[in-house]
Fold each of these.
Amino acid sequence: MSKAQQLSDRLAQIFGGQLQSNIVDVGEVTIEVAAQDYHDVCLKLRDDESLGFEMLIDLCGVDYSEYGQAEWTTEKSSSTGFSRGVEVASHGYLRFGDDIPEKNTSRSRFASVAHLLSVKNNHRLRVRVFADDEAMPMVPSVVDIWRVADWFEREAFDLFGIHYEGHPDLRRILTDYGFVGHPFRKDFPLSGNVEMRFDPEQNRVIYEPVSIEPRVLVPRVIREDNRYLEPEENTEEGAADA
């Protein structure tokens, strides 16, 4: 039995029904817990001697609003370029005020993912917790368990709008205080919502609605080979080569 499978079995034995999923894949263990159990599970992950996850390596937010959807999926190549990419079918090309395409509602949208390390037991673990409310995504903070979570949770709040209940100083860390929206959300436009410039008449920096027109720049490579010849031409060329 692999070391990862042993860890997975031990987690199932300790937490039982608190685990919504417990998966071993490519030598890694990923567990998923409900928001109401998240803090208690993390505390036991640190304090249980057989687990001993004393280090939080990373913590980040995830937006699953387009999970499993693909704009570019195709089963064959095209000789006319990716012109279908000009059709707006994803959040990235939307402007402020545009209608948001219908999203996949089969699962909760926002999740917080923590990566843990046990130096003593040489174990690694991924813990995922989904926020119950999409309009106000909120999960418990783990700053009191791992102090390093402080800036990680602030970053997830800033970029995804995930609120960490119990965080001592939850405020933006990468964008400025007047920033509109959360830039890592899938429905955030690539050009943003506002732009700033210096106004010489007012002698100060002002914010305005963004004036950038969205464009789709898809490189097209044209190769001069037999893939673009008509069938009869391709046959004649093949016969001549023979």
Note: The longest helix spans residues 3-15.
Amino acid sequence: MTRPSWDEYFMKIAALVSERSTCGRRAVGAIIVNNKRIISTGYNGAPRGLKHCLEAGCLREKMGIPSGERQELCRGAHAEQNAIIQAAASGVNMEGSTMYCTTAPCATCAKMIINAGIKRLVLGGRYPDSLGEALIEEALIETEYHILEPKP
């Protein structure tokens, strides 16, 4: 058995976190790590206390909105947003940390990542909103793609 690298280890955890997603279209998981310690996790889903999309139905599907467009027309918050909110609510400083996420950020999440002081992203795939990746690049946030092999 080969011991996983830190990036592989944390990406596997982000993939596990994504299994809590309540989105019927795309399950996304994110974790924030500082000094090889997980400081926050998040998955995409409705705000606490509200019906999840799996219960209420997908507003985006009903409206025919393609993936990567009009993110504001959704009941759910993105995994990156939830990880940042959880860290902030706990008073945890994210400056200089790394975010592992199963997909690249949308433009809104990219702005939150930049303002949270996250300095490195390890991503499991692309997202159909190229502005998010452009903002991350402009902010000089180190970005790597680490695609996990599908489970057998």
Note: Helices lie at 6-18, 53-56, 59-63, 79-89, 107-116, 130-138.
